Amino acid sequence: MNVEQFIERLGGIALRNVFNPYRDQCAEHDHLNSASIRRMNLRNYIQAAHDCGAESVWLGRDCGYRGGRRTGIALTDEFHLPILNSQFGIRGTQKATLGGTLKERTATEVWKIIREVDQRIFLWNVFPFHPFEEGNPMSNRRHTLREFEQCKDLLLELLEWLRPRRIITLGADAHKGIARLGLTASLVRHPSYGGHLEFAAAIRRLYTPSI
């Protein structure tokens, strides 16, 4: 896989009621260079994960409006970008939006357990963009099967390039996406909606005796 070609293909996808962080500009929170910064963030992240070796890939469903929509990094809000930089030795990852630094609850729980595991984990979503309810860009919705089908080849290409030792899906929707591709993954509870304790306990079991 050529990372530049991957980023270019990712940034070329336009779907109705879907915000593509690597292409689109948010009228409320972005500036003219926001999409290019998110492309740079992702480019650095993928290259570092390939060069350093990512033990696992953790897959969420799709980007949230307080997390990956703003940063270009799945399951990662602006508050946790410096921790990602430290974990992978990345230089140059930047905040892409206007205003203050936002935290997302899911990202907070994910990064809390990543620090406990103390391994390089690559974070991605089975659908790499932010789907929203029509007329409400700052909402989250489940992506459709048709939307998934339009992006699935990119997911397969990324996993083939990173070759993780294990894939972990966060929640049933992400797990269904991986199953559609004929791949095997460990399913854990998604940390949202009160599932953070069950999520953390499941991760600990999977990484014992590593932690």
List keywords for this structure.
211 residues, Uracil-DNA Glycosylase, subunit E, alpha/beta
Tell me what the structure shows:
The chain has 211 residues and is α/β, with parallel strands linked by helices. The chain has a single domain (3-207), classed as Uracil-DNA Glycosylase, subunit E (3-Layer(aba) Sandwich), CATH 3.40.470.10. It has 8 helices and 6 strands. Strands 3-2-5-6 form a 4-stranded parallel sheet. Helix 7 (172-180) links the parallel strand 5 (166-170) and strand 6. The N and C termini lie far apart (32 Å). The model has no long low-confidence stretch (mean pLDDT 95).
A few lines on this structure:
44% of the residues lie in helices and 10% in strands. With 211 residues, the protein is α/β, with parallel strands linked by helices.
The CATH superfamily name is Uracil-DNA glycosylase-like domain
How are helices and strands ordered from N to C? HEHEHHHEEHEHEH
Number of helices: 8
Q: Give the strand line-up of the largest sheet.
A: 3-2-5-6
What is the count of structural domains?
Answer: 1
CATH class: Alpha Beta
Stretches with pLDDT under 50, minimum 5 residues: none
N/C terminus separation? 32 Å
Quantity of strands, as a count: 6
User: Based on CA inertia axes, which overall geometry fits?
Assistant: globular
Rounded Rg:
16 Å
Main β-sheet description: 4 strands, parallel
Reported by name, the CATH topology is: Uracil-DNA Glycosylase, subunit E
Strand content: 5-15%
Structural class designation: alpha/beta
- The CATH architecture designation is 3-Layer(aba) Sandwich
